[in-house]
Amino acid sequence: MCRVAVVGAGVAGLLSALNLNCEVEVFEAAKPGLRGRRCTGVVSRATLARLPRARRFAVQRYSGLEVSVPELDLRLSLSSRTTFAYKLDRGAHELELARMVEDKGHRLLQRTPIRAVKPKAGGVELLLPTGWRRYDAAVLAEGYPATLARSLNLAPTVEARVGIQALVRIGGALDPETLYVAYSPRFLRGFAWVVPLDGGRALVGGAALSRGLETLSRAIRLCSKLFKLKIEISSEKFGGYVLRGYPRSLAKGRVVALGDAVATVKSLSGGGLYAVSALARPLAELVEAAATAREPGAGSLAEIEKVLKTLRRSYALSETFDRAIASAPKLGLKLEAEVRDLEYDDHAVAILQALAGLKSVKRGERFPEHINTPVYA
Ligand SMILES: Cc1cc2nc3c(=O)[nH]c(=O)nc-3n(C[C@H](O)[C@H](O)[C@H](O)COP(=O)(O)OP(=O)(O)OC[C@H]3O[C@@H](n4cnc5c(N)ncnc54)[C@H](O)[C@@H]3O)c2cc1C
Predict the structure, then answer these.
(1) Centre of ligand 1 from the C-alpha of residue 11, in Å
(2) Whose CA is nearest to atom 35 of ligand 1?
(3) Span 40-87, pLDDT tens digits
(4) Domains of the chain, earliest start first
(5) How many CA atoms does the CB half-sphere of 65 hold within 13 Å?
(6) Pairwise CA distance, residues 127 & 373, whole Å
(7) Ligand 1 centre and the CA of 199: distance in Å?
């Protein structure tokens, strides 16, 4: 039986381990669940379905998306007849994944940082605190800043924003089933969000190229103003890196990488769960093929390429979006669109399609408050 090492017990490492049918050792520098707790945990219906046992950790559901772009004076309200996104309790779900990994018979070694990785003929060597150990293949799922992936030239070119958020009490008319996003490259140098929870609480945060605390106070000011909310912080601030970029490649010889280590993220939101949940299974097939020196199946390669294409498109969209905002005149526009079956994974496309219907808008022209623009016919 082949032996595979997985570096990192975040969602990428744990899902990789769950999909591997060989002898697996998962190495985690800290403890599982810690990084997950820093994440907002908003996922699409499809992503939720792909994440094992995730449904029981879904704590809130959403059928509306309110996007505001203050630079353009643009407000876009998308609503769906069906639930299109969920808020996942990421910390608890990661702990459940860790239990599943151990139930499968894999070893999970906490507080065991891997200090180096060296590809060797017919295998891979990892530097453990106790010395070098040899494996047939390895998965790098160390998250960002991707020190090991970088040492193998696998690290992607990314823009790493600092994402910081806090639990807040909300005063004002907040729809508990709507996600609120303020996309503001000029004012915030990034974007801000309000993710409603139950009982008048919400997660409010921002991701920007500036320092964390400054980002949070700017995000709160922006969201209060744009969405007319009274926001009162009720928890410690928490967060991590929110990435914009795409993978340069995912594999090198017998080393395969997944997650923030190689920026398998959707660039407009920095969301990583879509791609991690879609890639873990076909990538595990690649790892097993590498470990046993056989060719991976064409089906797995095609599946991986499909996801990579989506990530590249998401990156291109986010770049286009920023450029468009920098050069566009103020639209002074309030647009409401009902999207029949809005998919959170495709919300960037839905936004662009809604905007594409506005070609006839003249500079300074104001639209009526309520127009229904079907995005999908
Ligand atoms: C504020 C914020 C909000 C977010 N919101 C969303 C969202 O709503 N939806 C969404 O889809 N995504 C979201 N994301 C992104 C998402 O959290 C990440 O894409 C995802 O957590 C990446 O998982 P990962 O397993 O690749 O990395 P991580 O979660 O970073 O896990 C990596 C693990 O590897 C361990 N490790 C690192 N180096 C070593 C080493 N040398 N040896 C052993 N172990 C090591 C770390 O301790 C860590 O446990 C958000 C991120 C942030 C910061």
Answers:
(1) 7
(2) 8
(3) 999 999 999 999 999 999 999 999 999 999 988 888 888 888 899 999
(4) 3-38+90-157+247-314 (3.50.50.60)
(5) 27
(6) 57
(7) 28
